[in-house]
Amino acid sequence: MTTAKRDTYTPDTLLTVAVRVFNERGYDGTSMEHLSKAAGISKSSIYHHVSGKEELLRRAVSRALDGLFGILDEEHARVGTAAEQLEHVVRRTVEVLMAELPYVTLLLRVRGNTGTERWALERRREFDHRVAELLRAAAAEGDVRGDVEVRLATRLVFGMVNSIVEWYRPDGRGSAEREVVDAVVRLVFGGLRTGG
Amino acid sequence: MTTAKRDTYTPDTLLTVAVRVFNERGYDGTSMEHLSKAAGISKSSIYHHVSGKEELLRRAVSRALDGLFGILDEEHARVGTAAEQLEHVVRRTVEVLMAELPYVTLLLRVRGNTGTERWALERRREFDHRVAELLRAAAAEGDVRGDVEVRLATRLVFGMVNSIVEWYRPDGRGSAEREVVDAVVRLVFGGLRTGG
């Protein structure tokens, strides 16, 4: 017999557990039973904190989306040339992805079966669209190449950035974070070729 | 009552169905029952063609891996500067990914729970390693930047390339294929910045 743990969770600490389980089993494959087992508290204790697993998903992807949209409000994303703003946004997106790794991972895996998932996909598209607009402006200003279609370039750049969730694991020292951020910015803007 | 279709499958046409189901449900989540339903033939008919779902997985990922490793034997992957060879390999990798889309998609989603999956992961790592060696040689020859660590650069480049499976769908005309291939080569080698 398993002994239920005393419920010392807050909605935030419960969220940490839920996001781990969602990322391991997939959101669709996670039941309240799985969450209850992982948290070591009863299902009714979980319902004391949240209305159900969809609320946990909404809180989790909101945290990732707030981090990402917050970037667009930063000063360096609003002043300077479009290319400078774009570089700031790319750099900060990688930083937010690494700082909020489990939340961004979950956001990137959302598929669209529930209202919350569809809302999250819509917000992601909106973020990509805002970045694509910056890229378009930078191309118009002549600082970004015009021979790759803007939407395609945005997809490929996010493809590189988002792939980081597949292998990056924090080492607690922060030196790896810095190396990854610099590598992405160098490759995205200058490419592999020397003299770029 | 469903009427079983007359079994006119060959191992190859059965593979097409199996790969579609594996990509939809995940390999772990696919049972022989699912394959039987999708193919419209009985489980024993499937066993007439193959020993089980793991054989189907092996055939499918082999097709993707043969396509990828075949690139490394092509003349342009073996002559010229390392940077030229690398560019050929990147270009052809995108082409093979698009030509063998369902097979490469499956390969990229393999997780390592069975012997076949672990073998596939090992072969993928070997391919990545071969590309990393080319990148290292190109950096030594001075044609590729030396300020991004080789393994990290390889991961990021494959991150961009592999992300194509998430959104690319063939239109049958081939014009989109060419645009994507050119965009990847331009961004990977020259980056977004003009004058690169």
The most extensive interface between chains reads: A-B, 41 and 41 residues
What is the ordering of alpha helices and beta strands of chain A? HHHHHHHHH
Strand content of chain A: under 5%
User: What's the average pLDDT of chain A?
Assistant: 94
In CATH terms, what is the architecture of the largest domain in chain A? Orthogonal Bundle
What would you give as the CATH superfamily of the largest domain in chain A? Answer: Tetracycline Repressor, domain 2
Radius of gyration of chain A: 19 Å
DNA-binding region (chains A, B): 31-50
GO molecular function (chains A, B): DNA-binding transcription factor activity; transcription cis-regulatory region binding
InterPro entries (chains A, B): Homeodomain-like_sf (IPR009057), HTH-type_TetR-like_transc_reg (IPR050109), HTH_TetR (IPR001647), KstR2_TetR_C (IPR041490), Tet_transcr_reg_TetR-rel_C_sf (IPR036271)
Protein name (chains A, B): TetR family transcriptional regulator
Report on this structure.
- The structure is a homodimer of 196-residue chains.
- The first copy, chain A, has 9 helices and no strands.
- Chain A has helices at 11-25, 32-39, 43-49, 53-73, 82-99, 101-109, 115-140, 150-162, 175-190.
- Chain A is elongated and about 60 Å long.
- The mean pLDDT of chain A is 94.
- At the A-B interface, helix 8 and helix 9 of A face helix 8 and helix 9 of B.
